Amino acid sequence: MEPRLKLSRGQVVLAEDDTMVRIAVAALLTEFGWDVAEASTAADALAAISASTDLLIADLHLPDGNGVDLAVAARRGHPQLPVMIATGEPMADEGDYVWLAKPFRAAALRRAIEAAISVVA
Fold first, then answer.
1. Cross-strand pairs, 12
2. How many domains does the chain contain in total?
3. Cα dihedral sign for 87, 35, 17, 21?
4. Which of 25, 57, 94, 109 has the fewest CB atoms nearer than 10 Å to its CB?
5. What is the pLDDT of residue 52?
């Protein structure tokens, strides 16, 4: 069993269309100390992003687009927004986003979050 990892960061928008994955990741993020706004589409995620959003975590494939396009759109209004893209496919590693391979454990999620935050710091 992995140790409980605690962060105290702020607001994260989680864009994931698989309900079970979204629920599980949101629970981990909450345990880490984040306030989580959940979205199942890129459009809903973009609408949830505000000046108080500290991190965007997006699935690569969403019903109405992809995580990279979502990140580009989000950064138009929030250029310093840290972004993490999660995917079950080989990672493209494009842009200044942190890529996380699915499936992942809590420790890998935490490391990816810390990396995403440090990219724009």
1. 36, 55
2. 1
3. positive
4. 94
5. 95
Distance set, CA 12 to CA 55, 89, 111 (Å): 5, 23, 15
CATH code of the domain in which 59 resides: 3.40.50.2300
Question: Residue 101 sits in which domain range?
Answer: 11-120
Backbone angles phi, psi at 33, to 5 degrees: 105, 10
Question: Distances in Å between the alpha carbon of 19 and those of 26, 29, 36, 72?
Answer: 10, 15, 14, 24
pLDDT higher at 112 or 6: 112
The CA-atom distances, in angstroms, between 63 and each of 4, 45, 102 are 32, 12, 18
**98 lies in a domain?**
yes
2: which DSSP letter?
P
pLDDT tens readout for residues 63-99: 999 999 999 999 999 999 999 999 988 776 677 899 9
Is 51 inside any structural domain? yes
